[in-house]
Design a protein that fits this description.
Helices cover 0% and strands 66% of the residues. It is an all-beta fold and 211 residues long. Strands 2-3-4-5-6-7-8-9-10-11-12 form an 11-stranded mixed beta barrel. The chain is globular.
């Protein structure tokens, strides 16, 4: 794309996801993330997010609605930060393609309240593929290949102070995961970010906990 810059510094994203069931159909999802523009410093973003979910009877579909707080820093020497309050609604579902690997989908709609900007929306689609190495399925004590791709589309092109494109960004990820047991899972991998203005890589470390 015209004017797109390739950034050589690799960032580091640390992610902690917590999921729990409340009864048969209600679910709670919480995540905390700390991101830096470079390893190991230059603060990029802190995220705290929580959602409540519902799984309709007799389906594999999960519906979530939630809220997130975002504190974002500027790349480089500046200590300036800005905040965002964000609402979101998710639809999750599985594709029954093979017993050998998992395919999951997520559609997310966001309502964004960014500091000193106009309200706007965004639409996201994410595809997950997990392939086990040492077992036929991803059960306890399983290593697996973790792949995902997410595309972001803006609902509006005006932020109130500037204009953006409808295409917002794309994230492509490949990593290795290990499922310890029914409670803990860990992933480490590399994600390539592509926007209208930049191309950049990030190392991503993720911990998943079911309680």
């Amino acid at each position: 794309m015209t004017g797109q810059k390739s950034i050589s510094e690799t960032g580091l994203w640390n992610q902690y996801f917590i999921n729990t069931d409340i009864g048969n159909r209600l679910k709670v999802a919480i995540d905390f993330q700390y991101r830096s523009y470079e390893i190991p410093n230059d603060f990029q973003q802190f995220i705290g997010r929580a959602a409540i979910g519902y799984q309709p009877k007799g389906t594999q579909i999960k519906l979530y609605t939630g809220y997130g707080y975002f504190n974002s820093g500027a790349r480089g020497q500046s200590d300036a930060t800005s905040y965002e309050h964000r609402l979101h609604q998710d639809i999750w579902w599985d594709s029954e393609v093979s017993d050998f690997f998992e395919i999951k989908h997520r559609i997310r709609i966001e309502e964004r309240f960014v500091e000193n900007q106009d309200f706007r929306t965004r639409f996201r689609y994410m595809l997950f593929v997990n392939v086990p190495f040492n077992n036929k399925q991803i059960i306890n004590k399983t290593y697996y290949l973790a792949l995902w791709n997410e595309t972001f589309i803006n609902g509006q092109t005006s932020t109130g102070i500037s204009n953006v494109e409808y295409f917002d960004r794309n994230w492509s990820y490949a990593g290795i995961g290990y499922k310890f047991n029914e409670t803990f899972k860990f992933q480490a991998g590399y994600m390539h970010e592509f926007t209208p203005s930049i191309k950049k890589g990030q190392f991503v470390l993720s911990v998943f906990q079911n309680i």
